[in-house]
Amino acid sequence: MPKSATSAKKTGEMRSRIFATVVYPESAPADWVERLENAHIAAMISPLHCLDTLPTGEVKKAHYHVLWRYAGVKSIAQAQEVVDLIGGAGAVEVVADYRGYARYLCHLDSPDKAQYAPEDVRCLGGADWAEIALSEAERTDALLDEIEDWIDETGCVSYIGLCRYARKQRPDWTRCVRTHTVHLSALIRSAFWEQTQGGDAGDRGCC
User: What is the CATH number of domain 8-133?
Assistant: First the structure.
């Protein structure tokens, strides 16, 4: 677990911008995500941690980690209001390492723990998990993985078709597509060669 402060009782006068809590679905209000969204706070909700285990091997109770950041500093009492609003467990956590905790939502730096899919992180209030948790190289690699998977799945054999699709359907791909022209063009040419030589892709186009 990334560094966090002690309980609210011991840090009553402490102020911070970044806080976290744990939510157990069975004890939280049914609309807890909506409540958090309506609070208009930049927040991230982890995938459901349902595969975490204790040292004994026993599976832990399924839970979510919730991480949020205010525009300005808040008191422990103010942050605790969010925990109470969404039915979080216990006292609010003060987070010392924003990036580290964001990565912890998926256990990125804990290969010995169950791994959770980054695409399952829910972001509210303008929060951007990838921007916080991943380096520029990691973000680029993740986008290229998505683009290359899409090319394989659709049988795309047109770079301009890829550009059109990104522009209309996946604007988050656009910059990556435009700055990796050589790589993606070569990949598409190779895919076209495989299709024409292998004869198993038919006349699948792009977009």
Answer: 3.40.1310.30
